[in-house]
């Protein structure tokens, strides 16, 4: 089996997971593999992906794994992928590897344009949201709502850059968390609302928390081990040619709308760091 790191600009897609009648990142990947005669049927043997990003969400380190031929390098995969989706690293993985279940940590970043917001209030809200909680009021999911989050805030000019890490995430959890932090930092919700959101009582309607826009969100990292299943973890070999292709694609996108440009810039910086490593 082989695992691949995939970066993509999520704005043209209706999410990662394949859906009928709308373009998705997974459709683009499967179409490329089909054009290369890598598999027959609906999907490659033993295929799995690290996560299912929502419509508009981008990724630097989405990870897919499947039974791949030895010749299928990231550069070969890129030869049939659209420019908005780039493979840039790969690794041999043991039989039975599962890109979803064997991930030990996922990391998302969100670039929130908040020139008028109070960073001190944002940090206080983040401190209360960090750690283990039942986040049932920050997701439409009914199950898997108890999570342990690590949340960090960096202020970069008029932007708050929030980094959220956990072993896994309920649907829309990061975007709703960002929305809550932004409302507190902009003095649109009292700080005490954080405790109300984390309480057992369901908050619906105007008391609830809507998700922040998807476009500034990036799946920035997925870690595999060390763990019981993978004692030595997994290290990815960067394909320099493929990574340079990814860098050029996302560099071109940097000149667009300010937030989209920052997301593209983050993808460029992440690929550059991988090349340098």
UniProtKB/TrEMBL annotation:
Matching Pfam families: PseudoU_synth_1
Catalytic residues in the record: 54 (nucleophile)
Any one GO molecular-function label of the UniProt entry: tRNA pseudouridine(38-40) synthase activity
Top enzyme category: isomerase
EC number: 5.4.99.12
Domain Pseudouridine synthase I TruA alpha/beta: from-to ranges: 125-224
InterPro entries per UniProt: PsdUridine_synth_cat_dom_sf, PsdUridine_synth_TruA, PsdUridine_synth_TruA_a/b_dom, PsdUridine_synth_TruA_C, TruA/RsuA/RluB/E/F_N
Keyword entries, A-Z: Isomerase, tRNA processing
Protein residues bound to substrate: 108
Domain of life: Archaea
Keyword Isomerase set for record: yes
One record GO biological process: tRNA pseudouridine synthesis
Keyword field contains Hydrolase: no
Catalyzed reactions: uridine(38/39/40) in tRNA = pseudouridine(38/39/40) in tRNA
Function according to Swiss-Prot or TrEMBL: Formation of pseudouridine at positions 38, 39 and 40 in the anticodon stem and loop of transfer RNAs.
Record family assignment: Belongs to the tRNA pseudouridine synthase TruA family.
Protein name: tRNA pseudouridine synthase A
Source organism: Natranaeroarchaeum sulfidigenes
């Amino acid at each position: 089996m082989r695992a691949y790191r995939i970066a993509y600009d999520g704005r043209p897609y209706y999410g990662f997971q394949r859906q009928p009648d709308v373009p998705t990142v997974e459709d683009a990947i499967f179409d490329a593999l089909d054009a290369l005669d890598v598999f027959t049927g609906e999907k490659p043997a033993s295929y799995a992906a690290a996560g299912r990003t929502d419509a508009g969400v981008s990724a630097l380190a989405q990870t897919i794994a499947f039974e791949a031929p030895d010749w299928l390098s990231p550069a070969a995969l890129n030869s049939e992928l659209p420019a908005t989706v780039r493979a840039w690293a790969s690794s041999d993985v043991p039989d039975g590897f599962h890109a979803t279940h064997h991930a030990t940590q996922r990391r998302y970043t969100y670039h929130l344009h908040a020139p008028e917001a109070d960073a001190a209030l944002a940090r206080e809200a983040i401190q209360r949201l960090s750690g283990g909680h039942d986040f049932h009021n920050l997701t439409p999911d009914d199950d898997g709502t108890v999570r342990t989050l690590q949340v960090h805030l960096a202020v970069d000019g008029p932007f708050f850059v929030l980094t959220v890490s956990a072993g896994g995430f309920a649907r829309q959890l990061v975007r709703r968390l960002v929305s809550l932090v932004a409302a507190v930092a902009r003095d649109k919700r009292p700080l005490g609302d954080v405790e109300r959101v984390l309480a057992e009582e369901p908050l619906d309607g105007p008391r609830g928390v809507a998700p922040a826009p998807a476009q500034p969100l990036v799946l920035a990292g997925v870690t595999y081990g060390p763990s019981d299943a993978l004692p030595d973890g997994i290290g990815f070999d960067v394909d320099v040619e493929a990574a340079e292709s990814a860098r050029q694609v996302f560099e071109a996108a940097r000149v667009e709308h300010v937030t989209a440009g920052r997301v593209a810039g983050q993808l460029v910086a992440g690929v550059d760091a991988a090349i340098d490593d």
